[in-house]
């Protein structure tokens, strides 16, 4: 097995060459980006949209394919951050949206669509008795955390190092702490993930190491009387869709119950794994669950829900609820129609197809790493995966930091120039329109990259 230090000079050479090729093939995207920079800071309005030397600009999507301004057609392996599980422009979703457009796009009253989508989610997720819709996963986690603090009367929140739960202050902590800034691996420190977060907010967040139950238990015991909730992704997306080890997730659930904390499961991305979400796969029952991504069918959406006594904090039938929850576009009928049409397509056979294909794909990637002697780790579960060029396995955030950034950057641009749109951070997912031919195409490009890397 080759060492990363041996491969990185070659990766840098590939990256330099591929940047030149990309720039030459994408003049319209370059011009569009330069225009955007005049009115959008950094030329984009979502941080993840940017990548050097400049991002391509999409013109349209077709099933599992993206077409950009320069006419490049690429297999979409990111699917708008795992959102488009049915791919681009699925006919069922288009019909539902077009039908609603003729009836209206926004109302002050219920339309019945929010009730129908809520009923579908409650019927699928055993832990959810009631829920509320938001316009993003960030808003969903914000309201869930607020509910936990209100219900328990405690100020602090416990979250996982490397876990991403949105952009509000309470959770934008220790998402990507660099190097030694995060402290000891078994006692990580809270580190602000952005400028503008007040020190007292950082101090109200307790950071737990991932997949290390003993260390997490010790931290929780020290802070127990102050912690309102533990929030955790059952599959840690930010480091490459690394599943929680079952004993870790079950152990955290038990610690929350022991100390009177609420247990919040962030299923914004992992809900695509099973009809009942990852919580059904793991056999775990949270107090509150947060949703997003696929439940909106490609439109802005989020949701949070759980036990009826917790959701009663938002009940306004007897006057003002304890927690106000406004939002002009909450439960927007266009989003609701798209979400209903999407969930109707997500049958048990659909999940079996996606998850089976993902299992086979990760096995093939690992085999390619072994074949070419490249230290390649393929993490993930179901239809989610990421390639890490790393010499050791990936169990937590600290492990992920050891992966080679130059090798990933080289693979990303190498793929762009050969018909693949890989997630800029390397996180990828399947969509239902993808078949074996598309998966073989992806694997073929990865293999060609490994050959070039080892030449």
Q: Taking Cα atoms only, what radius of gyration do you get, to the nearest Å?
A: 22 Å
Q: CATH superfamily assignment of the domain at 91-345?
A: Type I PLP-dependent aspartate aminotransferase-like (Major domain)
Question: Helix/strand/pairing class, anyone?
Answer: alpha/beta
Low-pLDDT segments:
none
CATH class of the domain at 91-345: Alpha Beta
Give the beta-strand count.
Answer: 18
CATH architecture of the domain at 91-345: 3-Layer(aba) Sandwich
Structure described in brief:
This protein has about 450 residues and is of the alpha/beta class. It has helices at about 5-25, 25-35, 80, 90-100, 115-125, 135-150, 200-205, 215-225, 245-260, 280, 310, 335-345, 350-370, 395-400, 405-415, 435-455; strands at about 60, 65-70, 75, 130-135, 155-160, 185, 185-190, 205-210, 225-230, 235, 240-245, 260-265, 290, 300-305, 375-380, 385-390, 420, 425-430.
Structural notes for this entry:
There is one protein chain. The chain has 455 residues and is an alpha/beta fold. The protein has a domain of 255 residues: Type I PLP-dependent aspartate aminotransferase-like (Major domain) (Aspartate Aminotransferase, domain 2). The chain is built from 16 helices and 18 strands. The strands form five sheets. A seven-stranded mixed β-sheet has the order 4-14-13-12-9-5-8, with helices on both faces. It has a four-stranded mixed β-sheet with strand order 1-2-3-17. Strand 10 and strand 11 form a beta hairpin. The mean pLDDT is 97.
